[in-house]
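Objective 1b: paired records.
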Amino acid sequence: MSGPFKVNTRSQWAAQNPVLMAGEPGLESQTGNLKIGDGRTAWNTLPYFSSPANWGSFWDTTSQTATANTPTTILLRKNDLDNRGIKVISDSRITVDHTGIYSFTFSIQFSNSDAQIHDINVWLRKNDNGASGNVADSDSKFSIISSHGGTPGNVIGTVNFILKLAAADYIELIWATTNAAAYIHAEAAATSPFAHPGIPGIICTVVQVASA
C-alpha cells in the first residue's frame, strides 16, 4: 500500500479485509474502484464509493391462485444467494437494510384457463398487512387473454417503480383477480416439444440507485 490512497489489488483487499478509518479511502489498482471507510465496516462488506451496491433478485417457482376480487399477497420464495442489503422476510416482505432510493421491477407470468378474458390488478403495499399500507398510484391492471383451443391464455406483466425507503422498510406485491381462472402461472423446465428452462410465476429485482 502506498501514496495518499491505500492501494491494493482486488484479491489482496479481499484477503486482508481491513477496516478502513472513517473517511479513509482505499483503491483497487486494476479496476480503479474506490471505497471510503466508516471506521467499523470491513472491506468485503463496505460498498464501493458512488455506488450503494445493494441489490436483490427474487422469484417464485410455484403457481399462485386467489379468490376472486380478494387482495392477496404475492409470494417470493426463491432468492439469489449473492443478494446484498435487500432480503425477503416471511416469503413476501421485500426488506431493505439501508435508507435510500430503490428501483423495484417485477415481471409476472399470468395465465387464464377460462374462455373469457379476466383482469388482474397488481400494486405495492408498504409496511402494512392491510389497505392502509397501499402505495398511492402504484396499481396496474392486466387483461389476461382467454383460453384458446384448450390452451390457457398467457400474458406477461412488467412494471417498474422508484421508491424512497428507510432502513427496515418493506414492500409487498399485492394482486387481485376478477376470476380464479386467471392466476399467476409457474412451470417447470421441460424438454418437449422443445427444451426450455423453468418459468417462474414472478421475478422481482430491487436495486438501490442512490443514497437518501
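Objective 1b, second protein:
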Amino acid sequence: MTTLTAIQWTDHSFNPWWGCARVSPACRSCYADSLAQRWGHDAIWRRKGPRRMMSDGTWRNPVKWNREAEQTGRPALVFCASMADVFEIHPVAEVNAQLDAARARLWALIGQTPWLTWQLLTKRPENVADLVPWGATWPENVWMGTSVEDQRRADERIPILAQVP
C-alpha cells in the first residue's frame, strides 16, 4: 500500500477542502495555515475567507486506497482534513453551503470505503452531532477525536466529544 503522508500515525491524508478559521491559541501555530500561505492561499485561513475545494481527482483517491486495503486485507487509516476542519460552520452562507455539500459527499464516501478507518479530528466537537448524518449509530470505520492544546481546552472539548456516539 502506498503511504501518501509523512504523518506517522496515519496511512493517508485526505482533504475535501483547504481552509479554516482560528478558534483557539493553538491555531496561531497551525502548520496548515503556514503551508497554505507558502503556496499563496492565505485568504482561506480567515474567518470569512473562501475555502479551496478539492478536485474530483482528489476525491477519487480514497476509493483507490480502499481497493488497495481490501486487496491486502489490511484496513488503512485516513486522516481527514489535515488542511481544514470538517466541523467548521462558516459565517458566510454561500461558503457554508459549499462546505455542507462537501460534507454530504464525504459522508457518502465514508460509507463507500469500509476498508478505510476515517480519522476525523476537530477543534469544534460542539458541531459534530449537528453535522453528521448518523445519529446514534455511527459507521464502524469512523474514529472521532478532538484537539486539546492545553488543560482549558481539554476541559471544554473532551466532555463534548465523550457525548458523541
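Residues 67 and 145 are 25 Å apart (CA to CA). The longest helix spans residues 93-112.
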